[in-house]
Amino acid sequence: MPRAPSPHPTDVELEILQALWNHGPCSLSLLCETLRTEREVAATTVATMLRVMSDKNLVKRTGSGRGATWSAVVTQQRTEAGMVGALVDRLFAGAADRLAAHLVEGGQLNPAQLAELRQLIDQQSSSTDKKIATTKTRRRKDDH
Hints:
Mean pLDDT: 88
Largest sheet: 2 strands, antiparallel
Low-confidence stretches: none
Order of helices and strands: HHHEEHHH
Radius of gyration: 22 Å
Number of strands: 2
Helix content: 55-70%
Strand content: 5-15%
Structural class: mainly alpha
């Protein structure tokens, strides 16, 4: 029995999406040139991948023939969020804190990245504290 198609891009599809996110809409030939900076690819293979990705609604084609351009339909942020969510669910049983701890304890973050993470946590904590205070204030007003 064949497995159901994944809603997430494959590794090769991610390479193509990365190129489109970085360069914006581009022709098949420019896309192939961009991909060739990392490894050799055949234009026919990339064209086939783009058709498959179009069927999955990951990319779209504008125009026709040699003047056609390809662009990403999905955003990098949405793709990242979906794939990280799937990783957290599958590997960490839904516990995102375990993923964060793994990255911090594994030494995979440099000092600048750790500082940025600290700042994000502080901002989130501050935002959450304000929401809790607002909710408590509303409840008190409703109680009177």
